[in-house]
Write a structure and sequence with these properties.
The chain has 103 residues and is mainly α. The chain has helices at residues 2-36, 41-83, and strands at 90-91, 94-95. It has a two-stranded antiparallel sheet. The relative contact order is 0.14.
């Protein structure tokens, strides 16, 4: 169970990191372009903030369903882990799911 939770959180972090890398890449391109055009620094800052907000909104709209699904799965795993902490624990290669029905 702990491994599944770790996998889901790492996927969420990876997607968030990918979005941030894309924003940083576009930011670098825009800074170079605006410097070539001799745009004043205070105008550059305003434009970069507007573009960053637009990119974040686009990322949320494009990946919102993926993030929502991953968060729901994560929350379900956390609830399951809280309800039955031993669920999915292995002992000797077999999964322990509760008391044995064999006597």
């Amino acid at each position: 169970m702990d491994h599944a939770i770790a996998v889901i959180t790492s996927i969420i972090y990876a997607l968030a990191g990918l979005v941030m890398q894309l924003i940083a890449f576009i930011d670098g391109l825009l800074i170079g372009f605006m410097n070539d055009l001799h745009v004043p620094p205070h105008i550059q800052t305003i434009l970069l903030v507007v573009v960053a907000i637009a990119l974040i909104i686009m990322a949320i709209r494009l990946l919102g369903g993926v993030f929502a699904t991953l968060i729901v799965i994560l929350l379900l795993l956390l609830v399951l882990h809280r309800v039955d902490p031993g669920l999915g624990m292995t002992h000797g290669g077999s999964t322990v799911s509760g008391p044995s029905s064999k006597i």
